[in-house]
Write a structure and sequence with these properties.
By secondary structure, this protein is mainly alpha-helical. The protein has a domain of about 45 residues. The protein is built from 7 helices and 3 strands; from the N terminus they run αααβαββααα. A 3-stranded antiparallel sheet has the order 1-3-2. It starts with a helix and ends in a 7-residue tail after the last helix.
Length: about 180
């Protein structure tokens, strides 16, 4: 959820808490408190869109910088990104609410990217046959699901044209190493 939709949702819940029936008011207040705690917000944060802070995000590599920049654009809803990278950190201007959103989204998407890139690496290895001849067969249903995903991903991987591979397979191995 982006900042505007969460604020809109909390504003609607707040109005229900103020004007609803007794049971509705109690439920709305409880829901509002839970959401504000989940997003680490105060009532002032819902109305504060002008108070920006310089926020520092550690970045380990170019991928993390690029991912954070994409998330920043989504959270702030802009394609004009104002940032600075210095000594392994990305510095951006955000409200406290936006900072929490960026942290949550980065955690979610960096984990998903890691899983997908691991699967892509496996697909690349399989497509280019970079494994021993005696590879083990899958043991259980989860392995077959992963294997199906791997095969589907392999279809989109371009096979590397490696002329040395043909030469290596054609030459007999020397007995004196």
């Amino acid at each position: 959820m982006n900042e505007h939709s969460i604020k809109d949702k909390l504003t609607k819940i707040q109005s229900l808490a103020l004007r609803g029936e007794a049971g509705e008011q109690e439920n709305a207040i409880a829901l509002m408190e839970r959401l504000m705690k989940e997003y680490d917000l105060s009532p002032e944060d819902l109305t504060d869109t002008k108070h920006l802070n310089v926020i520092r995000f550690p970045i380990a590599d170019e991928f993390e910088r690029r991912l954070l920049m994409q998330i920043y654009g989504k959270v702030v809803n802009t394609d004009k990104i104002q940032s600075k990278v210095k000594e392994g950190y990305l510095f951006v201007l955000l409200t406290r609410f936006q900072e929490e959103q960026m942290k949550d989204l980065f955690r979610i998407y960096s984990k998903a990217w890691q899983e997908e890139s691991n699967m892509f690496f496996s697909a690349f290895i399989q497509k280019n046959e970079l494994y021993p001849d005696l590879a083990p067969a899958p043991d259980n249903e989860d392995d077959y699901e992963s294997l199906t995903k791997l095969v589907n991903m392999m279809r989109s991987v371009k096979k590397v044209n490696n002329p040395q591979r043909k030469n290596l397979l054609a030459k007999p191995l020397s007995k004196s190493l």
